[in-house]
Design brief:
Two copies of one chain form a homodimer.
Chain A (H helix, E strand, L loop, with lengths): L1 E3 L2 E3 L4 E4 L3 H5 L2 E9 L2 E2 L2 H14 L6 H12 L6 E8 L16 E8 L8 E6 L9 H4 L6 H12 L4 E5 L5 E4 L3 E6 L2 E5 L8 H9 L6 E5 L3 H6 L2 E6 L3 E8 L2 E2 L5 H19 L4
Parallel strand pairs in A: 8-9, 8-15, 12-13
Antiparallel strand pairs in A: 1-2, 1-7, 4-5, 4-6, 6-7, 9-10, 11-12, 11-14, 14-15, 15-16
Helix pairs in contact in A: 2-3
Chain lengths: ~280, ~280
């Protein structure tokens, strides 16, 4: 299901021209968020992140249109769904230079969301593809997503569920699609900003952890820190929280599940409070 | 002008669906090449590069279709033109995992080519965005091109024509769109493979240089090597060869133009021999 120009139609319908820079140069942004009971979860946070990125990339941002796309698709019915909204710099002449009179393109899709996506346990394998803190594609959710695609594909070849991605200095950055956290006693460690996306659920967890007696520390982490931690998990807007059971074949401890479950319950409570949906 | 499914039509016509991975994830490849007198220049080299990249990314490659797209557009008339052929992994369900039954999309565009694009003199400014040798997007011509877009935009903000891009270790990689060479006496230095695209004109220059008495050395180069060189130039399939006159405000020597002109003439001779077009 596709939202475009205020209308909802079949998503397999041709819509984009060949000279849209989102397609020709990966020159655009996207956000993916779940909706429950017709209400998009943490919508304002996603819109604010997209706006900040659009400003960074000098893509004019029509906030009302983005919000309307999300709301219209969320309200199609009350079934849980995943909404993805895409913003491109729009069609332009050949070449890299920004068009002088940009006409950004906004569209959004709706797909089913299932319980089986969230609160799962997964394994990771370390990717040879490094995140690059100097690349804006590392810290913004852009259409230039191929590094993540290939890291994920390599992980699956290695019979892991997802890739652990390090930055150029060997510090832990994220998975191909999710932020990472490590519980160690009452400390909740997470990689500091730089070569990673400022995840919306990452922000939620950082904001919530003190309420359940955890101290959040954002710092450089190494693979050995994850292996030594009581429990490692990842966060992602669609998959919410995911426990990591193994990295490169090494089983993780999976201790301290009480703190993890406290965070999981806080997130479920937030979803219930915001959307009246109980996971 | 757009080639799609064997037909040539108006390039502003909607053609792609919102769930094509080329658009949603920058999951695809492109090649850009000029055509003169109805003949695409170094077509087989471009097709071979695209095939090698398609194999790397596990995108099924229909070589005959790609060649037909290029030929059909080249033969529209004898005016010099720029052809861009794009290959995407095609439409797919949500998520990063490769589709099990991929249906790659191939299309191509034709735009005018002008003498004013080639054999120009330009200035560079060093980008803060580094090329990342571990990223497949650095060494393949992929649709995830946003780093180059932003590096180019930053250069233009700095009143330079293009960006000098270093790799993560501070070695010279390329410009945002072209490979780099430095002449030093009879030595022709160029960055070694790793964080750069294996350019088609780069290959031509490397192959031709010995014929005019130059020794090609592929090695790590630093910015200081460019500043110390007799002459620095870049190569690109559309702009062919471009002399660099200044980097970050420092004027380059622009000595030894005889060797540069020998290479330029060798390239013009090749175009004449292949296409009967005299630049």
């Amino acid at each position: 299901m596709l939202w475009h120009d205020g209308k909802i139609r079949n998503s397999s319908e041709a819509m984009l021209t060949a000279n849209d820079r989102g397609l020709s140069l990966g020159d655009g942004l996207f956000e993916t968020l779940p909706a429950f009971n017709g209400i998009a979860f943490l919508k304002h946070e996603h819109i604010a992140r997209m706006k900040a990125s659009a400003d960074y990339f000098s893509i004019p941002f029509d906030q009302k249109k983005v919000e309307r796309a999300i709301d219209d698709l969320a309200e199609v019915n009350k079934d849980p769904c995943v909404i993805r909204v895409t913003l491109t710099r729009g069609r332009a002449e050949r070449g890299l230079a920004f068009p002088k009179d940009p006409k950004p393109e906004i569209f959004a899709t709706r797909n089913p969301w299932s319980h089986t996506l969230a609160f799962q346990k997964i394994t990771l394998s370390t990717s040879s593809i490094r995140r690059n803190a100097t690349s804006p594609s590392s810290s913004h959710k852009t259409l230039s997503y191929l590094d993540s695609v290939m890291a994920h594909a390599d992980a699956q070849k290695n019979h892991a569920d997802d890739a652990l991605m390090l930055d150029q200095d060997g510090h832990v950055a994220s998975t191909s699609m999710a932020n990472l956290f490590a519980l160690s006693g009452r400390e909740l460690l997470t990689p500091q900003r730089g070569a990673l996306l400022p995840g919306i659920i990452r922000d939620f967890v950082i904001g919530t952890a003190p309420n359940i007696g955890l101290t959040v520390i954002e710092k450089h982490l190494h693979l050995r820190d994850l292996l030594a931690a009581d429990l490692v998990f990842s966060t992602n807007s669609v998959r919410l929280m995911t426990m990591i059971t193994m990295i490169d074949g090494d089983a993780l401890k999976q201790k301290s599940t009480a703190h993890y479950l406290d965070l999981e319950n806080a997130l479920k409570d937030q979803i219930l409070a915001d959307t009246n949906y109980r996971i």
